Amino acid sequence: MTGWVFVVLSSVSSVLIAHFLKMTEYAGLNTIRVLTVNYAIASLVAFGTADWRDPLSYSGATDLVMPLLIMLIAGLLFIGNFFLFSRSVARNGMGISVSSMRLSLLIPVLISVFWYGEWLTSWQWFSMILLFAALYMMLPERRAEPAKNVDPGYNNEHGLSRARNRGAWLLILLFLGNGLADTSLKIYETSYSSVFGKEFFMGGIFLTALLTGVLVLIRSGSFRFEKAEIRLGIFIGIPNLYASIFLIQALEQLPGALVYSTINLLIVLGATLLGVRRWGDRVTARQWAGITLTLVAIVLSVVSG
Predict the structure, then answer these.
(1) Each residue of 11-23: pLDDT tens digit?
(2) What CA–CA distance (Å, rounded) separates 88 from 96?
């Protein structure tokens, strides 16, 4: 039962991140600067709460190469996925981009089942199918949205074809990037949690993302932070860290397929309800049906787990 508590805590943390990012957008702040502050806070808290005896006392120096490499790759994926999402929203629209990002859970789910052999019971398979169906019903409708920053050359047939191809590649990269980022936490939990504690591992990931963000800001000449950007970055940093920490703790106790599908579903559910309550978003009849199906699927998941 404790594993499901971590699932809920990870989901709530992720919904808080989405809420604060929405506040960033609403206030017209520089999102890259906000995220950079967020990564600074997350890495400081992670390293500050980490047990440094684990990595310092580990004798297999050559065995440290792979977990350190995973840290580096995951850090680049974490911040790279944001850039991909921003570009995809401009090319493909918000609805399709969100759909691609959320459905990327297929990657860690399939790896958990077929690579790590976390076979599910019949009821767990049934509840997971319901989770995917509910997720599909709750995603934004794929309406055609005007693309931003489109070159004049896209007005001709050849230009439109190039635009569609670029948009498709962005969706593919967004799908792969988010799926691999989630999978990196499963790889850590299964193979390298005995080398690094969760806090130290996440600290390394966020430090990589922080350094990447700093380099981007320096190169773009926008390395000047407003007080509101620093404040929101701090608000995002703590839930950003613990969304991953709680996810790893859930993976330690529950099958990865159930964890990833349930968390993604709860994030969409929580973000939808928060959007209605706080931001005046409208929910379609299909999405309300998805919310109802969500509750049924989660109850089945908990009972069968």
Answers:
(1) 999 989 888 888 8
(2) 9
Q: How many CB atoms lie within 10 A of CB 79?
A: 23
Q: How far apart are CA 26 and CA 75, in angstroms?
A: 27
- Tell me how far CA of residue 215 lies from CA of 38, 87, 204, in angstroms: 15, 19, 17
Question: In terms of pTM, does the model score above 0.85?
Answer: no
Say if residues 15 and 263 touch (Cβ distance below 8 Å). no
Task: Tell me how far apart the alpha carbons of residues 27 and 60 are, in angstroms, rounded to a whole number.
Answer: 49
AA identity, residue 159: G
Over residues 193-200, the mean pLDDT reads 87
Q: What is the pLDDT of residue 195?
A: 83
What is the distance between the alpha carbons of residues 37 and 21, in angstroms, rounded to a whole number? 13
Among residues 72, 107, 75, the alpha carbon closest in space to that of 256 is found at 107
Helices 198-220 and 65-92 pack at an angle, to 10 degrees, of 50
Contact 263, 247 (CB under 8 A): yes
Which residue, among 105, 94, 152, 158, has the nearest Cα to 128 in the 3D structure? 105
pLDDT tens, 232-251? 999 999 999 999 999 999 99
Length of the chain as a residue count: 305
How far is the C-alpha of 279 from the C-alpha of 234, rounded, in Å? 22
Question: Taking each helix axis from N to C terminus, what angle separates 157-187 and 94-103, rounded to the nearest 10 degrees?
Answer: 30
| CA–CA separation, 153 and 161 (whole Å) | 11
Q: How far apart are CA 56 and CA 255, in angstroms?
A: 31
Six-digit token pair at 130? 């319901």
